[in-house]
UniProtKB/TrEMBL annotation:
<dbReference type="GO" id="GO:0004518">
    <property type="term" value="F:nuclease activity"/>
</dbReference>
<keyword id="KW-0378">Hydrolase</keyword>
<dbReference type="GO" id="GO:0016787">
    <property type="term" value="F:hydrolase activity"/>
</dbReference>
<protein>
    <recommendedName>
        <fullName>DDE Tnp4 domain-containing protein</fullName>
    </recommendedName>
</protein>
<dbReference type="GO" id="GO:0005634">
    <property type="term" value="C:nucleus"/>
</dbReference>
<keyword id="KW-0539">Nucleus</keyword>
<feature type="domain" description="DDE Tnp4">
    <location>
        <begin position="134"/>
        <end position="300"/>
    </location>
</feature>
<keyword id="KW-0540">Nuclease</keyword>
<dbReference type="InterPro" id="IPR045249">
    <property type="entry name" value="HARBI1-like"/>
</dbReference>
<comment type="similarity">
    <text>Belongs to the HARBI1 family.</text>
</comment>
<keyword id="KW-0479">Metal-binding</keyword>
<dbReference type="InterPro" id="IPR027806">
    <property type="entry name" value="HARBI1_dom"/>
</dbReference>
<dbReference type="GO" id="GO:0046872">
    <property type="term" value="F:metal ion binding"/>
</dbReference>
<dbReference type="Pfam" id="PF13359">
    <property type="entry name" value="DDE_Tnp_4"/>
</dbReference>
Amino acid sequence: MDRRKKIILAAVLHLRRNPCRRRRYWVHPIRRSRERYGEFHRLVKELRLDNELFQQYFRMPRELYLATGDSFCTIAFSYRVGLSTVCMVVKEVSAAIWEELQPEFMPAPSMDDWLTIAEGFRHRWNFPNCVGSVDGKHVVLQAPANSGSQFFNYKGTFSIVLLAVVDAQYLFRVVDVGGYGRTSDGGILWNSVFGEGLRDGTLDLPQDAVIPGSEPRGRMPFVFVGDEAFPLRRDLMRPYPGPHGPGEKRAFNYRLSRARLVVECAFGILSSQWRMYKRVMAVSPTTAETCVRATCVLHNFLRVLTLRRRQYQNQPYTSSRRPGDPDDCLRGVSRLGSNNATREALGVRAQFTSYFSEEGAVPWQIHR
């Protein structure tokens, strides 16, 4: 008897000894009654009659997309559908949201876009020639199967990393999702498409320009701002390491941290709006990436609508914090990097340091 016949015979004997368990239900009685008792057909219809309650429950106006942040199991029971159906719907809808909204609400920035972003940072955050605030956010996951320590981060949880570039209006301009939690922010930047564009000079950044009011200094480059986890580059500024007393370095660190706070605030808004960030996501890393991208572009969608509404009502958008207000969340930075900077990058930082302590100084920075 050849090997193929032996395999077939063994399979037949196994089926005879272990007959397949007959399904009890093709559709469970609880799910058959979804049109009468399911959440979509009862609660959601009632919430649509009250905009305020709908906003409280779904975190968005009733005419827009909804998201509760509940577990897939809870959603399956609430809507009386199968767990696999919920998994499929969430993944497909999240992907569709990104594909539909990304071209309009998170396109790749052009040179004109970078110039507009720089104007926003100069007027609102007193940091000229800044084209974005960069940072990474850990999105906590349930430990993926057979992943070893790849997703295990320094906080003692499992996560993927959302690397983002944010403008002065808290809008995400570039996002890179899916980096391993064990990788540092600097490593995530290095391995990302954005980091590759930064190294290759393919981000379409503007040419060096003179900062208004400091013509004698000549042209200065446009830069991104980040914390100590990132390398110091000609186009990426980070604070001076270690504690510093009153002086130019302290003023520079304060001004850079004030601009860098924008990305921290954007992450805070994102976490408050989308409750999935408040809990451990019990999904695969691939599904988590899709959901994170969807929430980022929805964040932009909602903020753009708000900004347009304010412009229509002739209400200029202003920061909730006055320039002289305390910046408690900017103090106590603890992460230190061991990055080797080039002489040119050190020179650019020195130029900004001198500018912030001379013609670019602001009255309230001496109290920081």
